[in-house]
Design a protein that fits this description.
four-stranded mixed beta sheet, Rossmann fold, globular, about 35% helix, six-stranded parallel beta sheet
Length: about 425
């Protein structure tokens, strides 16, 4: 392919994917490609996929069909977790030209330079999970006020519902020194807030090749980042309850840079279901973690991931989850409807919960989340908190978040873009 071609990116899934897409975009721009909006015409379209749910798979296929309709001569590249897990299936989607596995995604420019448009099944590169090794640092930049900085990848856990270890390999990490260097670079670029991301963030420290023991520890990373000048805010994107130590909670409570905001996956409020899911804690430990956070930071925001309709979940199990969440001092929920994934242990669990029941349980917990969010916001009404406003002008309005993750919207003011403003809620 000739240089000075155009490329457009689309991201499905998590903050980790967002950080990697941003890095892939910078790689392509350095190679002479012009970045375009995904809705515009481009010579190359790159879709960075997720495969946590069946909906993510379907969305990928729908996007490829849209590209085919508007720009049939464009090259289409699929990477990410869906590409890693089902490369042959993706290669047969009409319009797809290249499937890049986890081990080769950061060599995207080289692969595209060798690509020619064909009606044959797409070329597949490096989709064997045994080839996935090493750590590729990535971060989003110039995309949002907040920057997502990847510090960890892969997972050594074996939750029965999850395909991520098959898609991203074993747990491995950047070094504290490299993360700090990236934070310094981002500070020099004017970034105000960094969100630390990873597949299993609390497992940070196993090195780039995934040692069995920790060479470094997440709490030490937090302490080192606290010393970086210029970054006014850090957030911990998501961390397992069994990996949140008392030391980490206590450090965040005293830090001016780390925000009073935690996102802690629960998945179920039933110990029976947690066991079937192969989670590494019981609900009592989860409640202890929430209680300590609220004791030291009463104003802290706590978000919760929960899965409804997991195989074997009875009405009584769901009731346990609902009542447990209702009683917890949390701020919001991310509710996921369980969807069966190939090659997972969950497929062996019976009985299967009917789809209509799963959807009804999802609706119940989303309503609970709305109530929790409203109550949390009301608790802080008429108080003053710092808000970091984003630069995006949406129909004359701008948005930002308080330190404890309450969203604020106000008429757009250029001088507030990417600035922290004391705001009366």
């Amino acid at each position: 392919m000739n240089q000075k071609q155009s490329v457009a990116f689309h991201t499905l899934g998590c903050k980790l994917n967002f950080s990697e897409t941003s890095t892939l975009s910078r790689i392509m721009e350095k190679e002479g490609f012009e970045k375009r909006d995904f809705n515009d015409l481009a010579d190359v379209y790159v879709i960075n996929t997720c495969s946590v749910t069946d909906n993510a798979d379907k969305e990928c296929r729908q996007i490829v069909r849209r590209i085919q309709r508007k720009s049939p001569e464009s090259f289409v590249v699929i990477t990410g977790c869906y590409a890693q897990l089902k490369p042959k299936e993706i290669a047969e989607i009409p319009g797809v030209d290249l499937v890049l596995g986890a081990a080769e995604k950061f060599n995207i420019a080289q692969h595209i330079s060798d690509l020619t448009k064909t009606t044959d099944p797409a070329k597949i590169c490096s989709c064997d999970i045994n080839e996935v090794s090493g750590f590729n640092a990535s971060f989003s930049q110039h995309d949002r006020t907040r920057t997502f900085l990847k510090v960890q990848d892969g997972c050594d856990y074996n939750c029965s519902f999850c395909t991520i270890p098959m898609a991203r390999g074993k747990s491995r990490s950047d070094s504290i020194a490299n993360v700090v260097a990236n934070a310094v670079h981002l500070a020099n670029e004017g970034v105000k807030e960094i969100v630390l991301t990873g597949v299993n963030l609390g497992d940070f420290g196993k090195g780039p090749d995934g040692e069995k023991v920790h060479l470094e520890h997440f709490v030490d990373l937090v302490k080192a980042l606290d010393e970086v000048k210029g970054i006014e805010r850090y957030r911990i994107s998501s961390i397992e309850p069994n990996l949140i130590t008392n030391e980490l909670i206590e450090w965040v409570s005293k830090s001016d840079q780390f925000m009073p905001h935690f996102h802690i996956p629960l998945q179920s409020g039933s110990d029976k279901i947690l066991g079937l899911m192969r989670r590494r804690y019981k609900r009592a430990l989860y409640a202890e973690r929430v209680a300590l956070i609220k004791q030291l930071m009463p104003h802290a925001s706590i978000g919760v991931d929960v899965i409804v309709g997991f195989s074997g979940e009875t009405d009584e199990d769901f009731k346990e989850t609902f009542e447990f969440l209702h009683a917890l001092d949390i701020s919001y929920l991310h509710v996921f409807t369980f969807s069966e994934r190939d090659h997972t242990k969950a497929l062996e669990i019976q009985p299967i919960v009917p789809i209509v029941v799963r959807n009804e349980r999802n609706k119940i917990l989303r309503n609970l989340s709305y109530m929790k969010q409203q109550y949390f916001s009301q608790q802080h009404a008429h108080t003053t908190r710092p808000v970091l406003f984003e630069s995006f002008n949406k129909e004359g309005m701008m948005e930002g978040y308080t330190d404890n993750y309450i969203r604020v919207s106000t008429p757009y003011r250029q001088e507030w873009a990417n600035q922290i403003v004391q705001w009366n809620l």
